């Protein structure tokens, strides 16, 4: 949004304007900037490591805080002129992080106290260093965090720096090369000053990016909304406190929000404030804790560079499995690893062929800034207003915006007369941690499932906008087919509990239909009644737990339910295998000799065999083929069993818990309220004799900066015991939201219960016996035939999509 007077042009500072905006700062930075970067030492050189006596000195958890308070008290008062009416302070960093003669961007941290909303950042004449220096930003990366520790920041920043080094190594590229770092800006956004982890803050202090001694909470009585720190860092800091020379410099913008206003607000600062000024070509979204592979960001960028129609892209997110895959011992981690792998092998490639990926994960995705500007970002940030209470809306829309990244993808593809596409870039890989405990996993999926359901309904209801998106005719046909495919998948998702119940019922019936071949020694019918009654009981218990208890408060119950459902799944797989064996035996194929074509024909004529084998083959066999085609089959050997045993838990527990908590539209965090007054304020005094307005602030000296750096480094080196976060109780649900939850839950249960009652009734069995099987052996229920063949058809579509994705990759598309 340009400011009055026309002083602003995105992406580069103005040549001239009435305000003189940025001219002096630009001259300061240009001094020495063109000489090229000369590093502190060879990349990887250790600049400093905490010594044992230093660690002992700071072993008291409050020692670093005491050092900060002592230095804060002795800060000197400086009178500074305001920069375009804004408080901007430049302060030297610790001498250990730079060397004499380097440009100012390496030796001084730039602090800006922002007192406006992110949408008004440019209009209020705030300026960022890359803009003042006239640099063109090709790539802008945002790292969002809440209360993560330094270990997660270390993982992500290390990966980002390796990616920038890879860009710099591409010396033959027209875009990249030795000075690639000047075209990349890394933005770290911390959601709430009081929520930020103390050791996380210490790590940023050691990097030289964060200087708490410069911060104020008010400027001329206006509360500060965000604290901006800018520095071109030359070091890589590890969570142990070790400091090494980075292989390339990294332009860092650290935005510390004064209040906790959630992730969407962090993205609004990134897009509407910083990107609006720097005007990057491509933006990369990362969560702190996600580690991109050393060339992942390049591959994402390349997708936009080679195809002007790509508006968004994502890579392959993998599960962090630990050293020697040790974390796969945990069934929950193994099952999620399998789920992530199959999604990256089947779903994402298929959606990429169509051109519309349902969700580009916020933990690792990329967007062309030009593509998402305007209507897509307006729709995306509507969720912030809804969840902050600024906009009153119904429960449908509130739940829909729990999956705001899905809304952004839909709005991008349907942007009027734009013809943007979304692409899956397999070579771009990033790893992330997943919940390793069942209660946390359930809580996480509650928001995912509820948000994705209502976002999918929104997309289906507005699919007509595809016709005005400017896509070519063939692409419109493909997108409409994908919409119909998504509708079928949604129907199966909503009836998954009934389908699972009925699959068990019919498999038992088929396996025990002949008393002479009962797999349970003649007790099959009795065992069937026990299993079905136990399953119904589990469903009732899960509903009760979901309505009245948090998963963290019912850990034993949920673990027992998961074990029980796993045993039921084992019994179901056994009956499926036995049914196939009986069919093969009846066809005479268990004999070692004497096979004829008639035996094979007789086997294929058995509907029970056809339905089960086709369904299993369409699932497990296509999993194998697709995994081999993607050259990534190892998860089948390490995680398939865990996934199968936990699949009933995914179907029953996650679905029921999600529907039972539709009234809960929280993100698990609570925003702050009120302005803080613990940092001190800066009062503006009018200038005299034509001088600009000035402000008196307390700032540390260069010696203070070095002492603070040493204190933070020693603090970071001492390992602290992990403490559990005790969050405040959930906000009480509104009456309307609770009613909405109850009504929809009743409809959901009635839908699945109705299918179970109808298709397991004696009336249906009699109807099938009289009108379908007519006394023929080996016939199956028509309902299950429909289920099995539908599973086969859906799996085939996914497989074909993945096949054409790899085929197109071979031709460079």
Automatic annotation (TrEMBL):
Keywords attached to this Swiss-Prot or TrEMBL record, sorted alphabetically, are: Cell membrane, Cell wall biogenesis/degradation, Cytoplasmic vesicle, Glycosyltransferase, Membrane, Transferase, Transmembrane, Transmembrane helix
Q: Which reaction does it catalyse?
A: [(1->4)-N-acetyl-beta-D-glucosaminyl](n) + UDP-N-acetyl-alpha-D-glucosamine = [(1->4)-N-acetyl-beta-D-glucosaminyl](n+1) + UDP + H(+)
What EC number(s) are associated with this protein in UniProt?
A: 2.4.1.16
Where in or outside the cell is it found?
Cell membrane; Cytoplasmic vesicle membrane
Q: Domain of life of the organism in this record?
A: Eukaryota
Q: What is this protein called?
A: Chitin synthase
UniProt GO BP: cell wall organization; chitin biosynthetic process
| UniProt domain Chitin synthase N-terminal: residue ranges | 75-138
TM region(s), chain numbering: 479-506, 526-548, 560-584, 611-631, 745-765, 786-808
> What is the recorded function of this protein according to its Swiss-Prot or TrEMBL entry?
Polymerizes chitin, a structural polymer of the cell wall and septum, by transferring the sugar moiety of UDP-GlcNAc to the non-reducing end of the growing chitin polymer.
Q: Which organism is it from?
A: Tilletiopsis washingtonensis
Q: Give the bilayer topology.
A: Multi-pass membrane protein
Molecular function GO terms recorded: chitin synthase activity
Q: Which family does it belong to?
A: Belongs to the chitin synthase family.
């Amino acid at each position: 949004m340009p400011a009055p007077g026309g002083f602003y042009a995105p992406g580069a500072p103005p040549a001239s304007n009435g305000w003189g905006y940025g001219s002096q700062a630009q001259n300061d930075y240009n001094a020495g900037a063109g000489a090229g970067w000369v590093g502190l030492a060879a990349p990887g050189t250790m600049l400093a490591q905490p010594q044992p006596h230093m660690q002992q000195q700071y072993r008291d958890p409050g020692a670093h805080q005491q050092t900060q308070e002592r230095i804060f008290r002795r800060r000197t008062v400086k009178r500074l002129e305001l920069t375009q009416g804004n408080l901007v302070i430049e302060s030297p960093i610790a001498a250990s992080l730079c060397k004499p003669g380097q440009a100012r961007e390496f030796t001084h941290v730039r602090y800006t106290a922002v007192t406006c909303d992110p949408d008004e950042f440019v209009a209020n004449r705030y300026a960022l260093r890359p803009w003042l220096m006239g640099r063109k930003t090709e790539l802008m990366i945002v790292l969002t965090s809440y209360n993560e520790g330094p270990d997660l920041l270390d993982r992500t920043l290390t990966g980002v720096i390796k990616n920038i080094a890879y860009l710099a190594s591409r010396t033959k590229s027209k875009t990249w090369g030795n000075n690639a770092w000047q075209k990349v800006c890394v933005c770290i956004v911390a959601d709430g000053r009081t929520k930020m982890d103390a050791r996380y803050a210490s790590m940023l202090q050691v990097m030289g990016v964060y200087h708490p001694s410069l911060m104020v909470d008010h400027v001329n009585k206006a509360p500060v909304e965000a604290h901006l720190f800018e520095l071109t860092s030359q070091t890589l800091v590890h969570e142990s406190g070790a400091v090494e020379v980075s292989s390339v410099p990294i332009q860092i913008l650290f935005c510390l929000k004064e209040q906790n206003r959630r992730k969407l607000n962090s993205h609004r600062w990134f897009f509407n404030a910083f990107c609006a000024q720097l005007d990057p070509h491509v933006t990369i979204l990362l969560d702190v804790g996600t580690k991109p592979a050393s060339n992942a960001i390049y591959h994402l960028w390349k997708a936009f560079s080679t195809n002007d129609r790509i508006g968004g892209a994502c890579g392959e997110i993998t599960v962090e499995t630990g050293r020697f895959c040790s974390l796969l011992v945990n069934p929950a981690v193994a099952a999620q690893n399998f789920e992530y792998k199959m999604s990256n092998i089947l779903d994402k490639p298929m959606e990429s062929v169509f051109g519309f990926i349902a969700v580009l994960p916020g933990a690792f995705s990329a967007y062309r800034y030009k593509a998402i500007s305007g209507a897509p970002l307006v729709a995306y940030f509507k969720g912030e207003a809804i969840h902050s209470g600024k906009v009153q809306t119904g429960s449908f829309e509130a739940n829909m915006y729990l999956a705001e990244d899905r809304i952004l993808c839909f709005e991008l593809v349907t942007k009027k007369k734009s013809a943007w596409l979304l692409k899956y870039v397999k070579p771009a890989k990033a790893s992330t941690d997943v919940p390793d405990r069942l209660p946390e996993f359930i809580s996480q999926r509650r928001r995912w499932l509820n948000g994705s359901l209502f976002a999918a309904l929104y997309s289906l209801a507005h699919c007509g906008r595809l016709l005005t998106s400017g896509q070519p005719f063939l692409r419109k046909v493909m997108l409409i087919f994908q919409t119909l495919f998504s509708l079928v998948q949604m129907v199966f998702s909503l009836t998954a509990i009934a389908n699972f119940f009925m699959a068990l019922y019919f498999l038992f019936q088929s396996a025990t239909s002949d008393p002479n071949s009962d797999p349970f020694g003649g007790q099959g019918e009795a065992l069937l009644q026990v299993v079905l009654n136990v399953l119904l009981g589990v469903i009732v218990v899960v509903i009760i737990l979901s309505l009245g208890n948090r998963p963290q408060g019912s850990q034993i119950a949920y673990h027992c339910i998961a074990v029980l459902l796993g045993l039921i799944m084992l019994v179901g797989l056994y009956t499926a295998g036995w049914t196939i064996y009986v069919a093969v035996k009846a066809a005479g194929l268990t004999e070692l000799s004497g096979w004829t074509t008639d035996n094979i024909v007789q086997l294929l004529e058995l509907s029970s065999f056809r339905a089960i084998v086709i369904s299993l083959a369409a699932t497990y066999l296509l999993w194998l083929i697709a995994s081999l085609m993607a050259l990534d089959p190892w998860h089948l050997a390490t995680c398939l069993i865990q996934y199968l045993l936990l699949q009933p838990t995914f179907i029953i527990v996650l679905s029921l818990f999600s529907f039972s908590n539709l009234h809960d539209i929280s993100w698990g965090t609570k925003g702050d309220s009120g302005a803080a007054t613990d940092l001190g304020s800066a009062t503006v005094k009018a200038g005299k004799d034509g001088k600009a307005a000035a402000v008196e602030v307390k700032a540390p000296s260069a010696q203070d900066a070095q002492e603070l750096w040493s204190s933070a480094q020693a603090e970071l080196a001492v390992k602290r015991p992990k403490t559990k976060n005790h969050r405040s109780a959930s906000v009480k649900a509104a009456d309307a939201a609770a009613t909405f939850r109850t009504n929809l839950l009743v409809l959901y249960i009635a839908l699945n219960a109705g299918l179970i009652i109808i298709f397991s009734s004696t009336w249906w069995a009699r109807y099938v016996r009289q009108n379908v099987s007519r006394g023929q052996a080996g016939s199956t229920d028509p309902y299950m035939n429909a289920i099995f063949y539908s599973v086969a058809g859906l799996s085939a579509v996914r497989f074909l999509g993945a096949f054409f994705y790899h085929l197109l990759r071979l031709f460079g598309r």
